[in-house]
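Re: beginner question about structure tokens

> Can someone show what the tokenized structure looks like for a real chain? I only ever see the sequence side.

Sure, here's an example I had lying around. Input first:
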Amino acid sequence: MKRIYQITLALVFSMGVLTSCEDYLEIPPVSSFGPDYVFSNVTNATKAVAGVYAALGGDHGYGIRLSMYYPLDDDIMMGQGGNPFPDNERRDIAHYNVQPSNTQIRIPFNQLYTGVERANICIVEIPRMAMYENGTEFEKRELRRLHGEVLTLRAQFYTELIRNWGDIPAQFEPSSTQADLFKERTDRDVIYDRLLADLAQAAELLPWATASSSSERITQGVARGLRARIALYRGGYSLRLDRTMKRGANHMTFYQIARDETAAIIASGSHGLNPSFEDLFRGSILAKRREPNGEIMWDIAMTGGGSSFGDSKLGYYNGPRWNNLGNGALTVLPTFFYSFNENDQRRDVTAAPYNINQDFTIVARTLQTMVDGKFRRDWITNPVSINSTAQYFGLNWPVIRYADVLLMFAEAENEINNGPTPAAIEAFEQVRLRAFGGNAALIGSTPTSYQGFFDALVQERAFEFAGEGIRKYDLIRWNLLETKLNETKANLAAMATRTGEYANLPTTMYYEAGSTELNWLNSFYQPQPTPAPAGSASVSWVGPNINTTILTFYAVGFTPGKSELLPLHTSILDANPKLKQEYGY
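And the corresponding structure tokens:
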């Protein structure tokens, strides 16, 4: 075990990146560095912590699987449909048909534990460094920051493990110190309580973000924001070992933690909303520039041009295609598109109903094949990637935004006070006002009852965070996943037959032919005109194709009391005799 410990440190120090769990076991170390060397100065310790961050990226991290396979299907988007299905792969994950042999659940699970192990090593070793207590002011400040970062990173790894696999083995010390590495499942509430304590400590160690801070590095606001998110998971519902959805005891205690942490972030003044929802993505993430308002509190750095270098497939796997390149795999549900107010500027950022021809002219997609647009390739400007044959564009994955802080604060206030306080309403309306371009006359009246405000929050979080890997886990903690999936299926069926609220929607949409921009020539909300507008091209819109392209696949395998969590991969059970299959099968 000591040798494995040294090899891990050597790789973290000399490479600073994670390839994959399989590659890690196959690559011999260039040389072997023990902890005395790696944790001998701030520079080396910083490189070790960079190796912990690196376990977040690549195909088996937030580069695609944790960001675009695992969070679907929900009531906003559908994962890749079509055949082959079942495929014992990504389609099965999205549509809740996951078998323990599924090829996509083994390596991400292992990679998250690789991150835990790397974090454990740093958490033990950094406070042991002589300069942690006796160094220069710079050394002490930097080492405390590194300590806070790895405490937060470990919390993120464990949170991802818990929300996908439930009660999982937990270890908070390096493997080299353990007499028995075959761990049983640990109750998730016990793990969450430890993470909440760790993040309280991390917040004291970390600085607040400043105008020059990088959103790729964890700050105090991130630790507090993640602590609020975990508190809401801890206080919310989840699938338990008896196959029922339950919330932990004393749930109001955890809403209070979420309220206090988000209030502290708001009071700090370190973060704010970008006035433009589009600029948040187009001008920052897709332009690869720092978001100037601090709204993107933490995004995972993706670089290198491939999975082995921790990159992401954002913009390739999802979003519009250019010249038939890219997957365009994630579908914005037609019912979600039509749930937006027509003046809500988030709709046309979130939904991209088009592809791009080789000559850069636009061809519209049908309503039932509309893709998500927050990470669209034609908005990438640094460098321009619209006509690239690459699959990796170096787009960062946002983990937490200030808008989430405001809405978590509003939710916690509503829960604690059995109705929204003026502060809760103000936080809620900050997010909503931005969505309508600052026009208060368009945002409508905010409900003032407990249930009304909660329902508005449920909807607002859908509008705000669509495509950001949050929605399914929100629905689970509210115990609304089954309800919302069933509701969405019923609404899709009604839309397919153009009945009820969907009766007057157009069956055809017309748009300007041969343009490099998508210019619609008729209304989304009225029957199509006759004759067709001059100079137009057309695309099928509301109609029965919803049945074959969406309803055939959408959440088709969902079973309550099972599908809220993933099963453990067969290889995990084979490797650890103390584990057995408890969930998701």
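Each token stands for a local structural state, so reading them left to right follows the chain. The chain has a mean pLDDT of 94.
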